[in-house]
Amino acid sequence: MLLILLKLKGMVEKYYKNYENELKEDLLSLTNWKKFRTIKDFLTPFSRAILVIKGDSVSIDRTLFIINILIKVF
Question: Fewer CB in a 10 Å sphere around the end CB: N or C, the chain?
Answer without folding.
Answer: N
